[in-house]
Amino acid sequence: MLLEIGKIYDGKVRNITNYGAFVEISVEDKVQVGMVHISEISNTYVNDIREHLTEGQEVKVKVLNIDEQGKTSLSIKKAVEAPAKPRPQWNNNQRNSGSGAQTSSRQTNNNQRSFNSKQPAQELTFEDMLSRFKQNSEEKMCDLKRNIDSKRRNTSRRGK
Length: 160
What we know:
With 160 residues, this protein is an alpha+beta fold.
């Protein structure tokens, strides 16, 4: 294997599918192709890959994994640094609007809680949390469908 896990390479998008993009990486005059899953394309929620990538586009990718069959998992979002998000500035009127101290303490507790994230919750906006929830839900549904399909295939073979 010429590619090293954890290293960043320059690549070219060769093919785009509904679930990811195939990227061609040239190392030492040898070409290898890896796949960037839809969840590894951007730091934001990706509904349509073609809104973020085009075929033939030059991209930086980070090698996440190379499995036993030689399939290479890549990430675009981990190859580039995440843009710094400005933290919202709240004044006391906005923070304490509502029904007194109960609302204020509830908001504070919600702001301190993280939502399946390595970042502190204060840096996440509602849109960020919603996009992560959608992304996680979509991935779980795909895994569930794949699991159900494999069970259906396996039960049909047992009867023979």
